[in-house]
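hey
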């Protein structure tokens, strides 16, 4: 390459799953038929009415122009009502909600809006890799905190409080947590808000999994007074089966939202109007629609666990979200090799845990975003593989 890449890219590499999916595409192109249990992209469709609204709106010749950076008022109103229904929180649709093209993009907007080089950012370990890569891209310092797999509270608050957090500007939290499936309760959220107030940093709750295998959805705004220091990202990707549509939002106090809008309005030129109309419709999905999705996930979870049993992996049975997080058997020294071997020999892909941080070493993550039939086929392939390859396992 004649032209050198920017310095900021020296600390960041291409997203592991992006590289792996390319490898899987190659394998499939040569007729391998890999079953991909690696990614959390729902295979079930959005509600039928959502798709109808999209197509009806797209047929209107007046609906194809640039749109407002803040989204149409009706969408913000619908998001506000959905928050009220789901979490019993009150958000002003005019000033406290900003629709986004996916919450992943929101992580960049928020980080650009609040971080200066050398600011510190608390990120969960294990956790969603984008918190780390975006912080690094901006020259901020990543401070991983342990997300505990099996203690009464997911975060050891006493330990965290004792640390020197004077340079921390932003803390990412995410419950139900990806990849471990751990939930938070109000006590933990309240303790985090208190810590953010005491140390003076912004607490960002990334909340895309609250409706998946989770009976008690919680928002950071369920904590009294959280708005002073906290904002919340949410997404249509998982809860409404709309990952490819790129739809999410950030909610928070007016001054925080305005600051994020300063960044966002310099990035994009508004969201396609028919997508906004369809999003309003999706937010009307009733409890029955969500219940049906969850019933399907419960059945898939059973097969995913059986598949993990075959591999000798162990897991807790109280996980929320759309994955099963499991510990690889003790004699497996290198989980990435273990996963590669399963990919090459059984043609089934599961994610190695270390891509989510050093505390993910020794773990694997299985996605529930494949049909029961496919999961059953993956089970059978792994059964055959285990029978013929036990010594290596
Ligand atoms: C914890 C977490 N946050 C954010 C995202 C991004 O979601 P979106 O599709 O809204 O960008 C994901 C996607 O996998 C995720 O797991």
């Amino acid at each position: 390459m004649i032209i050198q890449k920017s310095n900021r890219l020296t600390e960041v590499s291409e997203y592991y799953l992006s590289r792996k999916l390319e490898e899987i595409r190659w394998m499939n192109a040569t007729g391998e038929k890999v079953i991909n249990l690696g990614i959390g992209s729902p295979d079930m469709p959005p509600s039928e009415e959502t798709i109808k609204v999209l197509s009806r709106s797209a047929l209107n010749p007046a609906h194809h122009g640039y749109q407002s950076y803040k989204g149409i008022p009706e969408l913000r109103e619908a998001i506000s009502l959905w928050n009220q229904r789901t979490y019993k929180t009150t958000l002003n649709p005019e000033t406290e909600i900003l629709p986004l093209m996916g919450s992943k993009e929101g992580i960049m907007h928020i980080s650009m809006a609040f971080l200066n080089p050398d600011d510190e950012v608390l990120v969960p370990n294990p956790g969603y890799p984008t918190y780390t890569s975006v912080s690094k891209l901006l020259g901020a310092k990543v401070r991983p905190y342990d997300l505990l797999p099996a203690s009464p509270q997911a975060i050891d608050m006493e330990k965290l409080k004792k640390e020197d957090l004077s340079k921390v500007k932003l803390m990412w939290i995410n419950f139900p947590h990806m990849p471990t499936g751990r939930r938070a309760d109000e006590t933990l959220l309240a303790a985090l808000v208190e810590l953010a107030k005491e140390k003076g940093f912004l607490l960002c709750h990334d909340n895309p999994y609250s409706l998946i295998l989770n009976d008690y959805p919680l928002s950071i705004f369920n904590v009294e007074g959280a708005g002073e220091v906290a904002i919340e990202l949410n997404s249509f990707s998982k809860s409404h089966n709309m990952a490819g549509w790129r739809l999410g939002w950030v909610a928070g106090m007016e001054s925080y939202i305005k600051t994020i809008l300063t960044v966002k309005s310099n990035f994009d030129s508004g969201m396609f109007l028919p997508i906004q109309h369809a999003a309003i419709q999706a937010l009307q999905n009733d409890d029955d629609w969500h219940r049906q999705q969850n019933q399907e996930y419960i059945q898939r979870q059973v097969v995913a666990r059986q598949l993990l049993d075959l591999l000798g992996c162990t897991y807790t049975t109280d996980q929320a979200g759309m994955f099963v997080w499991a510990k690889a058997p003790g004699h497996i020294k290198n989980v990435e090799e273990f996963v590669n071997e399963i990919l090459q020999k059984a043609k089934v892909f599961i994610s190695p845990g270390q891509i989510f941080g050093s505390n993910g070493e020794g773990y694997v993550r299985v996605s529930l975003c494949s049909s029961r039939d496919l999961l059953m086929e993956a089970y059978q392939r792994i059964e055959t593989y285990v029978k013929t390859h036990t010594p290596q396992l």
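The pocket of pyridoxal-5'-phosphate is lined by residues 40, 102-104, 128, 174, 178, 206, 208, 235, 237, 243, 248 (CB under 6 Å). The chain has two domains: 7-46+287-388, 48-282.
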